[in-house]
Amino acid sequence: MDAIDLGFFRHQGHITINGVFTGAEMDAVTRDLEQWGDAFLADLAPGQRAWYLDGGVKARAVLRKLDNPHAHRDAVGELAHDGRLVGHVESILGVGVSVYFSQIFFKSPEGGGPKPAHQDNFYFGPTDIDGIVTAWIALDDSTLENGCLYFGDGTNLGPVYPHFAPEGEPFNLQLPGSVLDRQPMSPAPVRKGGVSFHHGNTFHQSGPNHSARWRRACALHYVRNDVEFAAPALPYDTALKLRVT
Ligand SMILES: O=C(O)CCC(=O)C(=O)O
Q: From ligand 1's centre to the CA of 245, what distance in Å?
């Protein structure tokens, strides 16, 4: 495993490492998530539709996301423990890490919606802003066309800003235009099996999917073992915190 360039990560607030996992490994995880997604969709209560469905796809019900796959699917639990990934996470955070929360982001072909710019540390309110890193695993190639991530370089070195949520979308916390106007965002395409790591303060967003191909990703939010979500903006189930090392 090549060492992560920590100087680059600390300066930019994010770094991409391609080739952490193989394409075949990603296909196996995706097949499992498709089964889980189908079952989840079939049982989805009407009151939860806005939270989980992709508003950008009108023709049919398509999932936008699923929460805590590390706790519900063995395939993702195995990724969370995988030494090829955990080695990089521990280079950033230090030895002794847990997954506190995780998400699958589906971005459906022809209309999967954008994710507005935000800082994970506003959502999580951790006890140490430097004690958390998100490992965003590309289950598909993630490109400019299908809605790759964009980052605000160096925003990890700035503060956590207040976020707002649009009416009826409490889950869609986002940075205000007055802050974003001053901040260019750079695209960060990732090849299938690659991992993009970002600091909890780093501004990030993703565009809509204009392509005919899926853009799916698994985000594992790692913390150093002593870190808690002390002031979260949304509810998180602390019982699902998974000690990895
Ligand atoms: O995949 C996306 O579109 C959003 C990812 C994200 O917000 C995250 O990993 O923290």
A: 24
